[in-house]
Design a protein that fits this description.
The chain is an alpha+beta fold and about 350 residues long. The chain has ten helices and five strands; from the N terminus they run H-H-H-H-H-H-H-H-E-H-E-E-H-E-E. A five-stranded mixed sheet has the order 1-2-3-5-4, covered by helices on one side. A hairpin with a 4-residue loop joins strand 4 and strand 5. Helix 3 packs parallel to helix 5. The longest helix is centred in the middle third of the chain and has 96 residues. The mean pLDDT is about 80.
Length: about 350
């Protein structure tokens, strides 16, 4: 924008030459040509076009003296492209042509040429600073985005490590309860049974029965707690990675995008179905690539197991494994679809519920 304003400022300045010479037809033609040159030179950005226009302007100065009156306009365009030899040539021709005008014209053109050079130098410096500013700004925005992404990755990694540590701690607690409290309760139950067997005092029988019942109830509660802790401590991603590690039939990849709070019923369902699907690929498919996709959406959980095998899995509709998959999914009000186009694909969606 500054370039076009500078050009029109110089054009208006050169129009002031009418104060020192008459505005005849040649002057008007030179004015219109300079204005046209200004517009074309600004909107044509390629350097080749600029050079052609500058050469044309030099030829016009050489042919008609009135074009020398607009030398500052032409000079600004030539200097914008840093074509110094052409600028010197145009300056010499303009000087020679201005000799036919009153002496004031020479001073007028000299002042205009200085203005053109100063404006070009100032605008060039401004554009360089503007480019540097935009570059610095873009680099700053890019670095800010990268930092946000790294911070997000670190937070996600930290959350996953906390989640993994929590699951490990649950497993440890379950083992401690099973190995210590569970064994002590089992021993106590056996001791009560032994005391009852060897005791001949019938008065102790009700107390021993009550004690044995209490110990059996405590043992049942401990077992349920251990099972619940064990179920909640299952890491779906680690379990699927374990299945992939054991799968050596062909290359396999997984796209995992699940949250941490996955219901245990979903975990067991996806693990069992993925295991059965991989076993089917080994037994029935000639696939060379397998893809597992596990994703959590706002309203549902999704599991996709697909391969590129051209040999259809046997028992697609009536196989026991596939029937078990369908039963597991339907028990959770989910949907299972099987496609055999361009490979074998199992597509499972299970809606989210408050409690599963």
């Amino acid at each position: 924008m500054k370039r076009i304003l500078n050009r029109f400022f110089l054009l208006i300045y050169c129009l002031g030459a009418v104060l020192f010479t008459k505005a005849d037809t040649a002057f008007l033609v030179a004015l219109l040509t300079a204005a046209l040159y200004t517009c074309i030179h600004y909107y044509l950005s390629q350097r080749t076009y600029h050079l052609v226009l500058s050469l044309f302007s030099v030829l016009l100065i050489a042919v008609c003296p009135d074009f020398a009156l607009f030398f500052p306009v032409f000079l600004y365009g030539i200097m914008e492209d840093c074509c110094y030899p052409l600028a010197v040539l145009a300056g010499l021709l303009s000087f020679l042509r201005s000799l036919s005008f009153p002496p004031e014209i020479l001073f007028f053109l000299a002042l205009g040429s200085i203005l053109a050079l100063l404006l070009n130098d100032y605008t060039t410096s401004y554009e360089a600073l503007d480019r540097e500013f935009k570059k610095t700004r873009d680099e700053g925005v890019e670095k800010t985005i990268l930092l946000k992404e790294k911070n997000q990755a670190l937070l996600e990694k930290q959350d996953y490590e906390i989640y993994t540590a929590t699951l490990k701690e649950r497993n440890r607690i379950a083992r401690e309860i099973h190995d210590n409290v569970g064994h002590m309760l089992s021993r106590s139950i056996l001791l009560v049974g032994a005391i009852r067997t060897i005791s001949s005092d019938t008065a102790l029988a009700p107390s021993l029965d009550h004690l044995e019942s209490t110990l059996n109830t405590a043992m049942t509660n401990v077992r349920e707690s251990v099972h619940d802790l064990h179920d909640e401590s299952i890491n779906l991603k680690d379990a699927l990675n374990g299945l992939m590690k054991d799968f050596t039939f062909c290359p396999i990849q997984m796209d995992y995008d699940m949250g941490y709070e996955v219901p245990k019923s979903i975990k067991y369902c996806f693990i069992s179905i993925a295991k059965e699907a991989l076993n089917n690929i080994i037994r029935h498919s000639n696939a060379s690539k397998v893809q597992i996709t596990v994703r959590e959406h706002p309203g549902l959980y999704q599991l996709i197991v697909e391969d590129n095998g051209t040999q259809l899995h046997q028992g697609t509709d009536s196989g026991l494994g596939l029937r078990n998959m369908r039963d597991r999914v339907e028990a959770l009000d989910g949907m299972l679809q099987i496609r055999t186009e361009k490979g074998f694909r199992i597509f499972i969606t299970i809606p989210k519920k408050e409690e599963l």
